[in-house]
Specification:
The protein has a single domain (6-324), classed as Aldolase class I (TIM Barrel), CATH 3.20.20.70. It has helices spanning 28-36, 49-62, 72-96, 112-124, 145-162, 178-186, 224-233, 250-259, 268-273, 276-291, 321-324; strands at 6-8, 11-13, 17-19, 41-43, 47-48, 103-108, 129-133, 167-171, 192-195, 201-205, 210-214, 240-244, 263-266. The longest helix has 25 residues, at 72-96. The chain has 328 residues and is an alpha/beta fold. The protein is globular, with a radius of gyration of 21 Å.
Length: 328
Amino acid sequence: MSDLSTTYMGLKLRNPVIVGSSGMTESVKGVKRAADAGAGAVVLKSLFEEQIRNESGYAINSNEQQYYYAQAEDYIRNYTRGNDLKKYLDLISGSRNTVDIPVIASINCVTSSEWMDFAVQAQRAGADGLELNMFMLPSDPSRNSGQNEQVYLDVLEKVTKMVSIPVAAKISYYFSGLANMVGKIASTGIRGLVMFNRFFSPDIDIETFEVKSSNIFSTSDELALPLRWVAMLASRVPCDIAASTGIHDGSALIKQLLAGAKAGQVASVLYRKGHSAIGSMLEELDAYMERHNFSSLDEVIGKMSFDRADNPAAYERMQFMKYFSGIS
């Protein structure tokens, strides 16, 4: 069998398949199942600041005595926040004590101050690494792109200075100058970059007049976007890249590795096909390496990146002129 080990964020992984942040990693049992299925690492389900705020707000609104006790609101808010945070810290420590693969905590906050506190406590709980699930929707017309982007840089610079464990940023492609911004993000001191985040997609129920979710799971067709950017940026940034979204089989994983990713995060395919999909991906990767006489994953990673591909311009082509010019 070929050597499938890799390093990501300075962490040693037995293979490049990482189970991404999802409902499958929200319990110690789920983390163990991922490890037993062969995953190289797991990212715990994100701790959402917004969720904590909503839950504390619900508790406050449900408290009929809040108007009689001046301290009630602060007490409930702090208790709810502390209780949810403790559950998450228990998940980190419990997972760390149960599996022998890297356990990466994930936090998603909307205010800069909260990132710092969550990050430090995640490290104390035993997380091997930390993934900051970052996205601030640029929906405020009074803020320009520079102001929005500076929030990311400020948060990352502060967090990386406060913790010693490796930090990764999971980002979207919603930037006015993606390549430039990725370069800035990668220079904040982070050790990993996850491309790309996948978001809640709103839909409208035309009968009930409700906003609902659509496209919960990714599809294999979504591979192209991250593949393009991994290939163009992997050799140009001072940190490791993990590919995310659209990896549904071994072939997709191989493509991202060839493009320059150190690892690939999977989630949707496990919901669709079960955890056995991890083994299938690794078998396909191993067979591929044997077929092409690759003895280690280092020989695969980046072989088709922008700087090493025979035709790097293909990654920058946006139009179909070459293929459709002869069609009338």
